[in-house]
Structures are given as structure tokens and as C-alpha cells.
Design brief:
ATPase, about 140 residues, START-like_dom_sf, alpha+beta, Polyketide_cyclase/dehydratase, Alpha-D-Glucose-1,6-Bisphosphate, Chain A, domain 4, globular, seven-stranded antiparallel beta sheet
Length: about 140
Amino acid sequence: MAEQRIDITHDSPASPDRLWAVLTDVSTWPRWAAFDAAELERPGAPERDGVGAVRLLRRGRKITRERVVVFDPASRHFAYELLEGVPVRDYRADVTLEPIPGGGTTIRWRSRFRGRLPGQGPMVRFVLRRFIDDLVKRLAAQGM
């Protein structure tokens, strides 16, 4: 099955440091993202929210689990792999926060995955693209 890709970019007036703090601290997600609850199932090392952390996100009765695979505060690069909760295989998302000259941040959220069933990928990409676009807009609004 063909790999599907999503690439979404939005600018924010908030600083990269502010957005990094919000993005990487899963306990903040219910306040700004489209999730009812979010928690660490297992902390990362050496940073609590860093590489190896398993995050549990709940929206209604739907639970998503993801594992942090990149946590680089210096370059503001954060990446995770989905463990369960979305009907896809090999899902990985990379989020980067780039400073804008004069202030603000460009948020770039890139995802790639494969559908579990033949022909499923494009439909899931359509749904995930809308969800991730909303998520990035909500992140961009933090610190305003």
C-alpha cells in the first residue's frame, strides 16, 4: 500500500520557546487541542516528555497512544509514532518550530503513514489532514 503524506504549515505570533513548551507537555493538550484528556502513560528519558515517552490521548471514547521518537529542544524538532488509535500502519509525525525574523514561529507538522486496508490510505489522509490542520491552528493560537 502506498505511503500517504500530510504537510501542514501555519505561522504563530507566539515564540518558538512558548510553543515548544505547550507542544511537548502532554498535560497541556486538553486545554488547547481537541482532546478531552491527555497523560503520560510512561515517561521518557532523560526528559520526562522526551524520547521513549508514551502519551495517551482521549477524545470521547477514542484513545490514541503515541511514542515520542525525537525530542530536540535546541532545534525544536519533536516526532512521534502512533502505537494505536488510528486505522493506519507506520504512522510518524515530525513537528518543527522555526523562528520568524521579527518574532513569531512557523509550525510545520509533517505526517506519513500507510493504510491498513487496500484503498484506505487516501480516505484516512483526508480525515487526518483536517484534524491535523485544526490541531496546528490551535497550537498556533497559544501564547496570543
